[in-house]
Amino acid sequence: MILRGLFCFYQKYAINHSKFINLYSIFNQNMRNILIIGAGRSASSLIQYLLTKSDAEKLHLTIGDLSLELAQRKTNNHPNATAIQLDITNESQRQAEIQKADIVISMLPAHMHIEVAKDCIVFKKHMVTASYVSDAMQGLDAAAKENNLIFMNEIGLDPGIDHMSAMKVIDEIRDKGGKMILFESFCGGLVAPESDNNLWNYKFTWAPRNVVLAGQGGAAKFIQEGKYKYIPYHKLFRRTEFLMVEGYGKFEGYANRDSLKYRSVYGLDDALTLYRGTIRRVGFSKAWNMFVQLGMTDDTYTMENSETMSFREFTNSFLPYHPTDSVEIKMRLALNIEQDDIMWDKLLELDLFNAKKIVGLKNATPAQILERILNDSWTLQPNDKDMIVMYHKFGYELNGKQHQIDSKMVCIGDDQTYTAMAKTVGLPVAMATLQILNGNIKTPGVQLPIKEEVYLPILKELEEYGVIFKETEMPYIGYNPDKLVVAV
User: Fold this and answer.
1) Cis before residue 475, ω within 30 degrees of 0?
2) Which of 34, 69, 297, 366 has CA 20 to 30 A from 432's CA?
3) Sign of the CA dihedral 12, 14, 18, 24?
4) How do residues 271-318 score in pLDDT, each as one tens digit?
5) 89 vs 82: CA distance, rounded Å
6) 304 CB-near residues (< 8 Å, 6+ apart)
7) Total Cβ atoms within 10 A of residue 391
C-alpha cells in the first residue's frame, strides 16, 4: 500500500524516474490484470466495484477507450488502475493488451465483441460481456471449451439480472417438484419518481435510439394458454398489460419482439404462457402510438433537407396538405384528438410545432429526427435520478394445485454517474469477472448466467447494492382476457 502511494507521487512529480518505475513493476507482477475495453456510462459502477476490491483481491485494471480522457476519468486516479487510449481496430495494439490480461471485459457495442473474443481464444483468456450471444460468438463455444475458457455473456441487466432472477425461482419450483405453466417477465429503464416532471412520465436513461426503434423488425410473438400470438408493429403500443408495484404505483408493459427466444434456455418448452415485455408508466404507450401511426419512427429512408428542417416542418411532413388549416389543426384531425385531450398536451410539451428549432442532421431518417427532438425534452438533468423496474410472474402446478409467485425489483440511481442503469448493467459484469478469476465459476464455454454457480452468489451480492427481489405468493390467475388493455 505504501509503495503504491509513493508510486502515485512519483507518477505525478517524477514520471521519468525509471528506477522507481521498475521497482513498481516488480511489485505489480503479483497483481491480477483485468482489461476493460470501453469506458462508457455502463462502465462506471463496474470500474468502481473492481477498484474497491482491488487491494484485497490483488487486482490491477487497465481501462482502454478510444477517448483517453474518458478512460482517465474512470480511473479516478486510483493506483490500481491504468488508463490507455485503445483503438479496437488496431489489431496489434488490441492483441498486445489482451495478451497481458488475466481476463477481458468487453463493454463495446455488441457487434465489436467478436474480434476481441477471437483474440481471447488465441491467448487463452476468459471473457465477460453484457451483450446478447451472437451467432458468431456462439460459434466459438467449442474452441472456448477446448481451451477451458469461460466466455460469460448476457450478464448485465436485461439480459442478465433477468436471467439470474428468473432461473433462481424456476429452479426452486422444480426442486420441490413443481411444473412450470406460466412465465411473464417485464423490465424497464425509467425516470425515478422524484425526477418525474413531464407529462410523458419518461426520460431517456439509456440508448435513445433503441427507445425510438423499439418493437420494429417484425411482429411481437409470445404464447398465451398454449396458443401462439402475434402483435404487428402498428398494433404493438395499443395492447398493454397493467402491473402494480407496491410503493411505486401502476405501470404498463408492452410485448417484446420475441418472447420465445429463451424458451428452451429456461427449460420452458411445455409452459402454456410465455411473455416478455417492456415496462413504462401508464399512458406512455398510448401516446407513443401517435408517432408510430404518423410514421415518425420509420428508420428505412432519409428525408430531404433534414439539416435545415425545423421541428414544425418535420411534423408537417407527415400531415396532408391543406391551404388554410394550421399544422396544429391537421395534427389533431389526423390523430382524432381534441385540444383538451392530454395527448395533445403531451405533443405540445415536446415542442413539435416550433418553427425556430432546427433539426441540424444531414440525410436523417424520421426516427433519427424524432430522437433529436425528444432529446431536448427527455434528457436527464444533472440532478435527475433514474429507476429500473423488473417484474416476473411464475405460474406452476404442485401436488395438483396451481400456484403463482410474483417477483419484483426496483433500483434507484445515485446520481448521473452511478445511475440505476449503470449499476444494474455494470455490477453483474464485475461480480462475474471476480467469480471467474477466483475459480468459483468453473463451467467453460460460451454461456449465459443461468447456472446456480453463477446466479446464486451474484444475486446475493447484488442485494448489498440495493438490487433486491421481493417474492410474493399470489393466487394463480393464469390466462385473463381482461388484462390486455386496448389503448385507443
Assistant:
1) no
2) 69
3) negative
4) 999 999 999 999 999 999 999 999 999 999 999 999 999 999 999 999
5) 20
6) none
7) 23
Q: What pairing do the DSSP bridges indicate for beta strands 249-255 and 470-474?
A: unpaired
pLDDT above 90 covers a percentage of the chain that reads 87
Confidence of residue 30 (pLDDT cuts 50, 70, 90): confident
Mean pLDDT of 56-85: 95
Residue in this structure with the C-alpha cell 396451481, named with its chain if needed: 402
Instruction: State the pLDDT at residue 17.
Output: 39
pLDDT band, residue 91 (cuts 50/70/90): very high
Average pLDDT over residues 459-475: 94
Give the global pTM: 0.88
Q: With 0-12 CB in 10 A as exposed, 13-18 as middle and 19+ as buried, what is 68?
A: middle
Task: Tell me the C-alpha distance between 101 and 117, whole Å.
Answer: 13
Q: What is the mean pLDDT of the chain?
A: 91
Residue with grid cell 385540444, as numbered in its chain? 339
In angstroms, what CA-CA distances link 480 with 257, 286, 293? Answer: 21, 21, 28
The number of CA neighbours under 13 Å toward the Cβ of 311 is: 20
Q: Which amino acid is at 19?
A: K
User: What whole-number distance in Å separates Cα of residue 374 and Cα of residue 387?
Assistant: 19
Cβ–Cβ < 8 Å for 201, 283? yes
Positive/negative CA dihedral, 75, 157, 388, 375: positive
Q: CB–CB of 105/428 below 8 Å?
A: no
In angstroms, the CA 186 to CA 188 distance is 7
- For residue 32, give the amino acid letter: R
Q: Which residues pair with 34 in a beta bridge?
A: 61, 103
Which whole-number Å values give the CA distances from 487 to 235, 238, 418, in the listed order? 10, 5, 35
- Burial label for 59, CB within 10 Å (0-12, 13-18, 19+), is buried
Confidence band, pLDDT 50/70/90 cuts, at residue 476 = confident
